[in-house]
Amino acid sequence: MTESYVAAVDQGTTSTRCMLFDRAGRMVSVAQLEHHHHYPRPGWVEHDATEVWRNVRQVVPWALRQAGVGVDQVATLGLANQRETTVVWDPRTGVPYARAITWQDTRTADLVADLRSGPHVELFRSVSGLNPDPYFAGPRLRWLLDHVPGLRERAAEGNALFGTMETWLVWNLTGGPEGGVHVTDVTNASRTMLMDLRRLTWDQRLLDALDVPALMLPAIRGNAEVDAKCTTLLPGVSIGGALGDQQAALFGQTCFDAGEAKCTYGTGAFLLTNVGDQVVESTEGLVPTVAYQLPGQPPRYALEGSIAVAGSLVQWLRDSLEMISSAPQVETIARSVEDNGGCYVVPAFSGLFAPRWRADARGVIVGLTSYVDKGHLARAVLEATGFQTRDVVNAINADSGQRLTRLKVDGGMTANYLLMQFLADVLDVPVERPMVTETVCLGAAYMAGLAAGFWADLETLRKNWHLAARWEPHMEAARREQETRQWDRAVERAYGWSPS
Question: What are 21-31's pLDDT values in tens digits?
Answer without folding.
Answer: 999 999 999 99
